[in-house]
């Protein structure tokens, strides 16, 4: 699956053998907000992308998916290289439920997320 936004931001993607997806990004000063830490939206971008790609890996030909709902808990400041892993918790005919975690390079858990994705015919 090609993702133009991942390409634009230099986000690396790994489709893992267990069905999970990992997205990683090396952040720098250009990702920092006005209080001096990496903006939470960057973490959410990685989580949404990893979880959505994990949902996408379950699709049949002709199906598409889109985020319905997404909730994140921020647990520690993001900095340096970030890695988000998304996994399918349950996949139904029309909805998939996912969870994800985002960590710093040292293994510190910085955010957790849960969400649901609509499964439908067609890509839009």
Describe this structure in words.
The chain has 2 helices and 6 strands. The protein is an alpha+beta fold and 124 residues long. Helix content is 19%, strand content 45%. A hairpin with a 4-residue loop joins strand 5 and strand 6. Strands 1-2-4-5-6-3 form a 6-stranded antiparallel sheet. It has a single domain, classed as Thiol Ester Dehydrase, Chain A, CATH 3.10.129.10. The mean pLDDT is 95.
Give the gist of this structure.
By secondary structure, this protein is an alpha+beta fold. Helices cover 19% and strands 45% of the residues.
Features:
alpha+beta, 6-stranded antiparallel beta sheet, 124 residues, 6 strands, 19% helix, Thiol Ester Dehydrase, Chain A, globular
Summed over residues and divided by their number, the pLDDT gives a mean of 95
Helix content: 10-25%
Coarse shape: globular
Side by side, the strands of the main sheet go: 1-2-4-5-6-3
Please, how many helices? 2
CATH topology assignment: Thiol Ester Dehydrase, Chain A
Strand residue percentage: over 45%
Broad CATH class = Alpha Beta
SSE series: HEEHEEEE
Largest sheet: 6 strands, antiparallel
Chain oligomer state: single chain
Unreliable parts? none
Please give the number of β-strands. Answer: 6
The Rg value, from CA coordinates, equals 14 Å
Overall SS class: alpha+beta
Distance between the termini: 15 Å
- Looking at CATH, the homologous superfamily is Hotdog Thioesterase
* CATH architecture designation: Roll
């Amino acid at each position: 699956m090609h993702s133009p936004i991942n390409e634009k931001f230099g986000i690396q993607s790994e489709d893992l053998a267990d069905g999970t997806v990992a997205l990683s990004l090396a952040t720098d000063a250009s990702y920092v907000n006005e209080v001096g830490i990496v903006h939470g939206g960057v973490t959410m971008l990685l989580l949404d992308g990893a979880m959505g790609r994990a949902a996408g890996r379950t699709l049949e030909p002709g199906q598409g998916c889109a985020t319905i709902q997404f909730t994140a808990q921020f647990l520690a400041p993001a900095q340096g290289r970030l890695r988000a892993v998304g996994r399918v918790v349950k996949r139904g005919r029309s909805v998939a439920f996912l969870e994800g975690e985002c960590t710093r390079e040292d293994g510190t858990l910085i955010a957790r997320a849960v969400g649901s994705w609509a499964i439908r015919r067609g890509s839009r």
